């Protein structure tokens, strides 16, 4: 088995969804050309990150009837022949009208192999610094997620999920060799915790960790 090369794609995300998707495609193909086997996009890669944007940019996730972002992710994975951890997009569940922050994972054939809805919503009130409440708009997911590759199984979680050790602990006990976290940490609390939490999850569970932020 050849060694695994994993690429983390940092993207500047703008207001134009089509431009965000085109930029993501360009970087995924570039990573694959450089030898990457697994490519990771950041949280909310197709839209600006903010509760005021989630509803406007949300899409249904249905591989049988793909929306623009879902079609783009499938094409990226197939055309680059990589496993693609598709960051996250705001997901609309049409039957309920609920919104989720959702990561999809794609095989080198362009098939969706996993879907993770962010479990732990980021609500913070840091006096004089930052107020942000995902729970005003989003619903939390309720399942743990992993996917299989020729290099082993990987767990997937999103951003604030990283702060909860049980997610990685269960993944490790399910046989995962690593955790992958698309994220969009803020600049107030993020610098204190980003590397610290990744190192903690890795050491706690004797697994690899990787995270990708815009």
From TrEMBL:
Keywords: Hydrolase. One of its GO terms (cellular component) is mitochondrion. This is Omega-amidase nit3. Pfam families: CN_hydrolase (PF00795). Its EC number is 3.5.1.3. GO terms for biological process: asparagine metabolic process; glutamine metabolic process; oxaloacetate metabolic process. PANTHER family: NITRILASE-RELATED (PTHR23088), OMEGA-AMIDASE NIT2 (PTHR23088:SF30). The keyword Glycosyltransferase does not apply. GO terms for molecular function: omega-amidase activity. It comes from Coemansia pectinata. The keyword Hydrolase applies.
């Amino acid at each position: 088995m050849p060694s695994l090369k994993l690429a983390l794609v940092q993207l500047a995300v703008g207001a134009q969804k089509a431009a965000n998707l085109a930029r993501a495609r360009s970087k995924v193909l570039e990573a694959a050309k450089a030898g990457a086997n697994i490519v990771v996009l950041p949280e909310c890669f197709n839209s600006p990150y903010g509760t005021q944007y989630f509803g406007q940019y949300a899409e249904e996730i249905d591989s049988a009837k793909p929306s623009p972002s879902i079609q783009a992710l499938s094409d990226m994975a197939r055309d680059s022949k990589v496993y693609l951890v598709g960051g996250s997009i705001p997901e609309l569940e049409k039957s309920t009208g609920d919104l989720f922050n959702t990561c999809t994972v794609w095989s080198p054939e362009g098939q969706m192999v996993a879907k993770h809805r962010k479990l732990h919503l980021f609500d913070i009130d840091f006096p004089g610094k930052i107020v942000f409440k995902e729970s005003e708009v989003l619903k939390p997911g309720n399942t743990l997620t992993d996917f299989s590759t020729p290099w082993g199984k990987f767990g997937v979680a999103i951003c604030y999920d990283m702060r909860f050790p049980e997610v990685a602990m269960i993944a490790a006990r399910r046989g995962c060799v690593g955790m992958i976290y698309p994220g969009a940490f803020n600049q107030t609390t993020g610098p204190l915790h980003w590397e610290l939490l990744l190192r903690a999850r890795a050491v706690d569970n004797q697994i690899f960790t990787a995270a990708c932020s815009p």
